[in-house]
UniProtKB/TrEMBL annotation:
Cross-referenced InterPro entries: F420H2_bilvrd_red/Heme_oxyg, Pyridox_Oxase_N, Split_barrel_FMN-bd
Record-annotated Pyridoxamine 5'-phosphate oxidase N-terminal domain positions: 40-138
This protein's UniProt keywords: Oxidoreductase
An example molecular function term from Gene Ontology annotations: coenzyme F420 binding
Name this polypeptide is given: Pyridoxamine 5'-phosphate oxidase
């Protein structure tokens, strides 16, 4: 995991295909949004919606606290929780910021973290962001899973420019 800043090369930005919505070309409207726009919202979001799929194919969504680490969205959840059961069966996941007016939507793959340095990094980010005082032993992997959602693609759009701001960032994974 990297620091809270940008990690590695910037993702590729493009206008998503959205037929029937009057979406403008990438040089029209606001143009393609910069990756920094998405990162700013990922850092600032207080809550995130984690969307998984049950083993029988039914969807499941739950809000969580989370922290952007620079290359992944991190959150924790009880090991027997529905989202963790789902992620162990299928690690593909969608995570969205709670703000519908300027949303950031991550499509990615969940990885369960167990290394002490990764758990400590998550605790440090959470304690700083939410003004909590959790200790790393709170993240006992037998009880609480710590998850890194590494983006495969990210989608965002700006309120007030629905047809001229939609941007998809691809990470080449």
């Amino acid at each position: 995991m990297s620091d809270a800043g940008a990690a590695g090369p910037e993702p590729t930005a493009e206008r998503p295909y959205m037929p029937g919505y009057g979406i403008q070309g990438p040089d029209e409207g606001s143009g393609l949004l910069p990756w920094a726009w998405a990162v700013e919202r990922l850092r600032a979001a207080r809550n995130f919606w984690v969307c998984t799929v049950r083993p029988d194919g039914r969807p499941h969504a739950m809000p969580v606290w989370g922290a952007w680490s620079g290359d992944a969205l991190l959150f924790s959840s009880a090991v027997p929780s529905r989202k963790m059961v789902n992620l162990r069966a299928n690690p593909q996941v969608v995570v969205t910021t709670e703000e519908a007016e300027n949303p950031v939507v991550i499509e990615g793959r969940a990885e369960i973290l167990t290394e002490q340095k990764d758990l400590q990094r998550f605790i440090d980010l959470v304690n700083s962001k939410y003004a909590t005082r959790y200790r790393v032993d709170f993240l006992d992997p037998e009880v609480n899973a710590t998850v890194a959602v590494r983006p495969q693609s990210v989608f965002g759009l700006r309120q007030g420019d629905f047809t001229g701001s939609p941007t998809r960032w691809s990470f080449g994974t």
